From TrEMBL:
Name of the protein described by the UniProt record: Branched-chain amino acid ABC transporter permease
Organism name: Azospira restricta
InterPro entries the UniProt entry points to: ABC_transp_permease (IPR001851), BCAA_transport_permease (IPR052157)
Alphabetical list of PANTHER family matching this protein: ABC TRANSPORTER ATP-BINDING PROTEIN, BRANCHED-CHAIN AMINO ACID TRANSPORT SYSTEM PERMEASE PROTEIN LIVH
Localization per record: Cell membrane
Keyword terms, alphabetized: Amino-acid transport, Cell membrane, Membrane, Transmembrane, Transmembrane helix, Transport
Recorded family membership: Belongs to the binding-protein-dependent transport system permease family. LivHM subfamily.
Residues that span the membrane, as ranges: 12-35, 42-60, 66-89, 101-122, 152-169, 189-212, 232-259, 271-290
Main location: membrane
Membrane topology reported for the UniProt record: Multi-pass membrane protein
Length: 300
């Protein structure tokens, strides 16, 4: 029983992290049809920004340590918005409507550029921001199982972000306009929707979500060069399993991948490295568009 509980909770924690990483990627693709390979760099920039600011905050007596939890989303909002708007307005707006393969190549080049930029800004030494992680302590679950409260809190955060994204898309006027752009870009333009502004806002939101995932993860990891490249591969696997462009699909894909990996870690750790891609292979073999993906009509 305790082993089953450990698999379930570990899987939920890992799934919450995967969803945080994949949410921004699937939002950008769903609206702009851009598979943004630079999303991993947004994650890295958020992590580095948070680790730097949290390290500075705890390096001296600067008040209540719990204020550090506000620094994490603040870093993501500022860093993600600045980088996202700069990239969209400075480059991608000139490429709207281009072939999706070209956009993959362009954003992959951005990933490489931003990876080197983070090394120039923060260097190659690891950054640690463990204080917020340790500050919340641990909780005993079952017999002999203890989990960090920070990890458990990430589950709640990911659920709130998922519900917030659903509410914004389905219960607000801006969300309905965005869904119109997703459904048919040309008709939306004909009806007076400022599609370019929608694209800029969407890319900035996606960048902020990517940076938020990095900022919230920073207290639990060692922030080192290359984390953005590792993350984009996992995020891509999740959104492909769930269905490109679907928030619900990203959540379902994250849960499926998270629980599968947790099961492998506890039962067969030798296949842990392969289970994520095994799940992706099985899903795509049965349903090529992903669990919640829609088969789009081909325009001739």
């Amino acid at each position: 029983m305790s082993n089953f509980l450990a698999i379930l909770i570990d899987g939920a924690i890992y799934a919450s992290w995967l969803f945080l990483v994949a949410a921004g990627l699937t939002v950008i693709y769903g609206v702009m049809r851009v598979l943004n390979m630079a999303h991993g760099s947004f994650y890295a920039i958020g992590a580095y920004s948070a680790a730097s600011l949290v390290g500075w905050y705890f390096s001296g007596e600067r008040g209540d340590p719990y204020w550090a939890y506000l620094l994490l989303p603040a870093c993501a909002l500022v860093a993600g918005a600045i980088v996202g708007i700069a990239i969209e307005q400075g480059l991608l707006r000139f490429l709207h409507g281009r072939d999706e393969i070209l956009m993959v190549i362009v954003t992959y080049a951005l990933l490489l550029i931003l990876e080197d930029a983070t090394k120039l800004i923060w260097g190659v030494d690891p950054y640690f921001a463990y204080q917020p992680y340790r500050l919340l302590g641990q909780t005993a679950v079952g017999e002999g199982l203890r989990f960090a409260n920070y990890d458990l809190a990430l589950i709640a955060v990911s659920i709130l972000i998922g519900l917030g994204a659903w509410f914004a898309l389905n219960r607000t006027n801006k969300g309905r306009l965005l869904r119109a752009v997703i459904h048919d870009r040309e008709i939306a333009v004909a009806m007076g929707v400022n599609v370019n502004a929608m694209f800029a806002a969407t890319f900035a939101i996606g960048a902020v979500l990517g940076a938020l995932a990095g900022a919230l993860t920073a207290p639990a990891i060692s922030v080192t060069p290359g984390i953005g490249v590792e993350v984009i591969v996992l995020a891509f696997a999740v959104v492909v399993v769930g269905g490109l462009g679907s928030i619900g699909g990203a959540a379902a894909g994250a849960v499926l991948v998270g629980l599968s990996r947790s099961f492998a870690v506890h039962v067969a750790p030798e296949v842990e490295l392969f289970v994520i891609y095994g799940v992706m292979f099985l899903v795509l073999a049965i349903r090529p568009q992903g669990l919640f993906g829609q088969t789009l009509a081909r325009r001739i």
